[in-house]
Design a protein that fits this description.
homotetramer; 224 residues; mainly alpha; Arc Repressor Mutant, subunit A; Tetracycline Repressor, domain 2; 2 domains; 11 helices; elongated; DNA-binding
Chain lengths: 224, 224, 224, 224
DNA sequence: GATGAATGAGCGTTCATTCAT
DNA sequence: CATGAATGAACGCTCATTCAT
């Protein structure tokens, strides 16, 4: 999978331009003609590389979920020698990744009504792999003494964590603004840390507070 | 509220049919023709009552946000003689309301790209009135001794609470399924209670645990 | 015809409102709904008085052509004891009449494509009665010594005169502007007098020049 | 003119078919669907070449006014070695050009209410360039001794000339009939010559009369 | 690989007109 | 006389997609 040469430069350019336009204007109002014109290629050429608009979206979703899975794997290794700093750094990367593909959490429900295959891969990947991966990760963090809580609590913690993560990115008042990815990631990270705070073990409390303090001074985004 | 004559039966039927169809199939793939045909009225008649499709959505958003504001007011009065049971009961009502209008949290971002006026009323109402109302409510609950936490914690609590609330409803794998509103509301409520748990004061801990226990046995929804 | 009571006050109000709106915005973009709303009556009521939009236009055309015919008759009597002043005064009245119904010369061709009956009454009246009436009038004016020219010349004079008269009123850059009827009539009159000038007999030249001089000072409209 | 590649054959076919249909049936009752069906192309294809119906009309107006401007330039050169025959020949060409685009003078006022950009280009071109061009031309003809009159007279002559020219073409009883362009142009020309007659200088009177006589025998059109 | 003209079903909307009350 | 909700054919236009070159 990683070995296979990327299909073609044009293929990639289409994917990247689409991502950009989808994020800026919303998938709904970006037509295949817009994408082609933006790239100075013909529509015919676009359809040479993609059978339909759906497939562009599917490819973007593939990249999005692949990235998420990769970060999840990284998190597995990181937790071997756990540190708050490592966790936060990873969290920011994940949020930046989500931000890069923000049109997806924003319009995923809308897309379902016009893209059946996305629906399927979503429930397989997002609600399957990733969701379970996050759950496993949280249990591991508890095993390593970073988090505390019973099984039910940690289960809900994992579930809510994901909801917050994507919910933050999908917030409609944030999403289209040309915010710096940096700012959005920081603020989101802060929210998530406050969310985790009550479950951080006493052993990790001190570095946790330190990190929290170091992130605070950034200017706030508008409230929800 | 009860005094104001409803505009006309047909007006209301259009609004209600639209809500139903939007929830089932997504706003995007429900055309004005579909709505009219569903109601066995002519498109002309539909457009006699609404100047454009946007206005149907705007009316739905008006009803949605009006309901939310009403619940918020109810919450203000409830918190006078606070009880966990009262809070949970209200929370379930809010979630059922959200569920009734679930196409809105689901597709709000998408709608922004084709409905400028919605964008404006959203930022005024959702990100304004409601957001601030929820924050105030949480501070009041702390004043009454139900919640504990410093100002920053309670602030984040309020913000995250809202994100979770709508995030749960908007979860794409849930939204289109013909779930019983009851089940969705229960499960969402449970998630939110677990989210609040660490901040519940010791004085209210016992009734809180009792309520939590009474809700648990319901069969679980699929994980995120 | 003149004895018959006008059909009803509402009938007349519809005719007059339509005239006003047609002149202001063009018949094409004035719908029957607009007219009804403008008058604060229901569409049903409008259609109680008129079978269709065409009929409103036909009634307006009837009034327009009736007025023209009346002025023509007046001209016949006037020419008994001919004077330049009388002619000019009549001409101004005709131009003001044309201006009152200016949407007709403006959009007559357009109307033909959607109003067959207008086509018929137009060719009967405008191209029949009126056209012949004007011709007769010009010959009479020659007989009375006001104009000079052979039969062919006078024939062309009459034809061109009418063309100029309506052409002036229909000038698109003039028509929609809220010009004072007075100004438009004066300017148009001046143009028409210059057009007649070469055919005015030497006997009437002096009063003619006097009248011409007395009209000149008005500020000019924009050139064609 | 000959150098500029035409946009595409289909582009031109749309323009030409539209012109034909507009002339026959009136712009108002010719829909984009009609045009497409007439050409056996899809509506999509029509809209591939034109963004909207307005743009087809604008393109036709562009061609119309370009032609008029060209004839005006030709007139400028012609008047160097002026002759009645040359003038008449040009006049016939102009009238045939006007006849070719007759839907424009016919429905220009109507179009204004649904086509703002046409309104602008009309007042710039028709009421600007062309109007001034005609005025200049008439003054030049006087300088060359073909016409006689003081400044005011020549000014009105120019203005009225234009009004007659387009008024003749726009005559609703003429416009839709499948008249031979030749006949219409001849008759119109004759009218215009009679209009000019009083101002033709004695030096040019003889050739003028000769030309007039040579045109007369054609069968007459119905009177106005 | 690439072009760009062509397709056509379907969209949101309009408006003259009807009709039950 | 008057109301106003209801009709439906038709409009201008969109856009994912196809296909000959």
């Amino acid at each position: 999978m990683s070995r296979k040469e990327s299909k073609s430069p044009t293929f990639d350019r289409i994917v990247e331009a689409s991502l950009q336009l989808f994020n800026q204007q919303g998938e709904r109002s970006v037509t295949t003609n817009h994408i082609a014109r933006y790239l100075n290629i013909s529509t015919g050429n676009l359809y040479y590389h993609f059978a339909c608009k759906e497939d562009i979206i599917n490819e973007l979703y593939r990249r999005y979920s692949k990235g998420m899975a990769d970060y999840l794997n990284a998190a597995g290794e990181l937790s071997v020698n756990a540190s708050i700093e490592g966790l936060v750094s990873l969290l920011e990367k994940v949020l930046r990744h989500l931000w890069t593909f923000r049109f997806i959490p924003q319009s995923i429900s809308s897309l379902f009504s016009v893209n059946q295959s996305l629906r399927e891969s979503y429930s397989k990947i997002e609600a399957g792999l990733i969701s379970r991966g996050v759950e496993k990760l949280f249990f591991k963090l508890r095993d390593q003494g970073m988090l505390e809580g019973d099984d039910v609590q940690i289960g809900f913690l994992a579930r809510n964590f994901q909801l917050l993560q994507t919910g933050w990115i999908a917030r409609p008042d944030i999403a289209r603004c040309p915010q710096e990815a940096q700012v959005v990631a920081r603020e989101g990270c802060l929210s998530l840390l406050y969310f985790l705070a009550p479950y951080v073990s006493s052993r990790f409390r001190q570095p946790f507070e330190r990190v929290l303090a170091s992130m605070a001074p950034l200017q706030a985004l508008p409230a929800v």
